[in-house]
Amino acid sequence: MIEAAEMEKILAAYDQKKISIGTLGSHSSLNIFKGSKEEGFRTVCICKEKDVIMYKKFPLVDELIIVKDFTELLNPQLQEKLRKLNTILIPHGSFTAYLSTEEIQNNLMVPMFGNRKLLDWEANRKSQEEWLRQAGLRLPMTFKTPEDIDRLVIAKLQGAKGGKGYFLANSPKAFYKKFKEMVKRGLLQEDDVGKVHLQEYALGVNVYPSYFSSIIKDDVELLAMDRRYESAVDSIGKIPATQQIDIDVNPTYTVVGNFPIVLRESILPEIMRMGDNVHKKARELAPPGIIGPFCLETVITDDLKIFTFEISARIVAGTNVGIGTSPYAYLRYGENMYMGRRIAVEIKDAIKQKRLHEIAI
Length: 361
Ligand code: AMP
Ligand code: AMP
Hints:
Elements lengths: L3 H10 L6 E5 L4 H10 L3 E7 L3 H6 L5 E5 L8 H9 L2 E3 L3 H6 L2 H7 L10 H6 L1 H10 L7 E2 L9 E4 L10 E3 L2 H13 L12 E4 L4 E10 L4 E14 L8 H7 L5 E8 L7 H18 L6 E9 L5 E7 L14 H7 L5 H14 L3 H4 L2
Parallel strand pairs: 1-2, 1-4, 2-3
Antiparallel strand pairs: 5-8, 6-7, 6-8, 9-10, 9-12, 10-11, 12-13
Helix pairs in contact: 2-13
The site of one adenosine monophosphate (AMP) has 16 residues, from strand 6, strand 10, strand 12 and strand 13.
């Protein structure tokens, strides 16, 4: 694991008056770049040729670095270039989707706005559950093997797959039948069978609150809330039930977009306490805890119980619904605050207070 002291050395060599904010060109990059520009930073985008159009149409990037594959971020020459540009990397969903935890922890010698040590707690479903349970959150039950399935479960693959390849089953028999179908459709592979995580299906609505954990202000802010638009599950209701049975539809959860949500106000205090507690626990597990954005993925049932089924300890793409402004960011900061900009504000505050080494590690 890259030690904080090594990053501190790199940061000490940076010209802190000319910091660039950089990220991979996907996921929430426009959100991050817009916020960085509004706070006066230079921006660096590591981007695939096919996506350059996005940064032409939305001119938010000062330095485009074209790569064939995002794993080129591990290339020492590319990292040298990023360091020369005094870059602080902002991790988002594509970092964990395209790079492994070990690669991010051991081979990314560029200061990153986030806690690399927490990745171990987050990447592994078991330790993630332990973290969230110890923080006092309510989690859906999990099942060790398909043979234990005695109620409706959702079967998931490890990692940020955006719901691709998930399926439902209510018995061991149904599990194996559905699994085979998923393999046939190319959504799963034979050897995934041992890797599938089985979680009780919580019936309710999905709510994804996004928080910002400020190390500089020592506070956790609720900044945004969204829900996902998932294919095919969100379109199944358009088909009458009789025809659903005829064509044997199997809901999948591939995320296509997001909607903003405002929550019933009486639920907000618990949502806020959950955010505080998750960060507090993270600080015990891996100091200084969560650095910057994080999101809890929840289901709220009809008796208003909040089940958390996952955490992302980085910016989630759902915060893109708040680019410009969102109700919760507005309540805290007034107009024109959103996750990408909040990140840039934190980096700016850290530079001013000579505390960059505390948040870019
Ligand atoms: P992409 O940049 O679209 O390839 O996404 C990188 C990773 O983030 C993938 O694992 C996606 O499934 C996930 N992702 C992208 N957009 C969203 C979104 N709007 N909501 C949830 N996950 C997403
Ligand atoms: P994930 O990739 O873990 O964020 O999950 C993708 C989607 O699967 C979510 O947006 C939900 O619609 C659904 N989902 C995941 N876990 C559960 C659960 N335990 N109960 C109900 N729905 C879930």
